[in-house]
Fold this protein.
Amino acid sequence: MLSRSLNNSNVLGLLFMLPAAILLVFFLAYPLGLGIWLGSTDTSLGGTGHWVGLDNYIYLIHDPIARLALFNTIFYTVVASVIKFGLGLWLALVLNQRVPFKTLFRSLVLLPWIVPTALSALAFWWLYDAQFSVISWTLVKLGLINHYIDFLGTPWHARFSVIGMNIWRGIPFVAITLLAGLQTISPALYEAAAIDGVTPWQKFRHITFPLLTPIIAVVMTFSVLFTFTDFQLIYVLTRGGPLNATHLMTTLSYQRAITGGALGEGSALAIMMVPFLLAAILFSYFGLQRRAWQRGGDK
Amino acid sequence: MSNTVQERETQGMEFLQSLPRRWVTIYIPLAIFVFVLLFPFYWMVITSFKPDAQLGMHSTNPFWVVAPTLQHFKDLIFNTPFPEWMLNTLIIAISATFISLFASVFAAYAIERLRFQGAKQVGVAIFFAYLVPPSILFIPLASIVFQLGLFDTRWALILTYPTFLIPFCTWLLMGYFRSIPYEIEECALIDGATRWQILTKIILPLAVPGLISAGIFAFTLSWNEYIYALTFISSTDAKTVAVGVVTGIIEGDVYHWGELMAGAVLGSVPVAIVYSFFVEYYVSGMTGAVKE
């Protein structure tokens, strides 16, 4: 009896799903729901909360710092993602050529992606130091600037400095995944194009880019998702300063909820990111659907 | 490079490009990319060996270290809880990885091969779960961790890391299981093997590369995790290495740059070692998860 039910795929399927399901329901689905609930209460750290409806959201919409954080998050995501895409695609195209020690280069290039961000952010913190920055030192010695750059001291400098590090960290991911996509494009197409006498730009525009579009959609969705919800880089480099100029939604919700104790308000801030994430997820879903037609050629 | 016919063939259409052109379009951009991507690591390592007097670097050449010292590493290991941080991170990362792999293997096999009712929907749900970022879950999770009495313990992280590891590993393993021919399983079923025997004796041995990919990914992801470790752990000795080095070494306004960089170097070494041994698995895992 038992052995027969164990050969039934529904019973067995349920049994096999159990460990993953328990962990995911209890530590993922439940907190997600709890977060939505907390977002509409005035719970504080160590206290019980009362239901306040949409008060948190209404308060946050009128809060200039929350608005600034939303602006910063969108600015950070858009600028970093566009540059990461451009440079990542360029690096992928370069690595797709025949270069000596290609495997070694590919491994080295991925390093920024695998090293803990918090620790590489420390290196950037030191590189961005107002007094001892080696970047400023080099530029001064080259005679390009007169004063040391205050990388993290003024709002716009700080914004571009954190974006700079995010790009540094994100390029490898974009480049290596796009490289994998490039390697699936048949060389026969390029040979045919060469016989027809196309220019390099035409080759890229009419062969490489169209065939790469589906994977670009997926990679960029992930990239946008990671950038939009970035936390540790900002937390280590600036903690949201100066003058909240680099606060993202995530760092602000950490500050409000954990440092400030306003769990309800912090949760509301986190939940406010969900519509943006949903947009990215839907984009990804359709990107995946479009991939189906060329799956046959994949490794 | 000799110009034998064979060489020519393996070079593809490279002969269409002149050597100077290759320098401008390939070698120089590649050199700049590699320099920019690796320089912060060089700077991190070189700073960790510099005596404090050289950190000001107004006189000497900052790109080289004149009298290298191990003082920062010594201070880090003997005067801070750095060894405890490393141990904590190691225990947490390994436990979370094994729990996640265990749960993911069964889940992926069930979704991909048992085809129970609703398997497809569960697969899509797993993919969506992968897209839920920790930074929108950490506040409610903190209150759950607190209510369970796990706050400030390793269990807080061992049990929460699988929330982002399981969806990833399951998704990755589903791809691997898909590539194993059905016929093998059917033969085994006809020979009277049970599902359990098929899984342990046929599927798992064939999916070893996938298991390694998923395991390495899970290990590095848990080693690098920050926001949960920052939120759920408060006592200095119980911290993970990423949080510990960032929050535990800075005393007020005094930055011990040498020590900080030494911590960053040592804290990155384990993932770098794991990565260097399994680059191929890592790359195939990364591209596979995005592609499939």
Summary: The two ends of chain B are 39 Å apart (CA to CA).
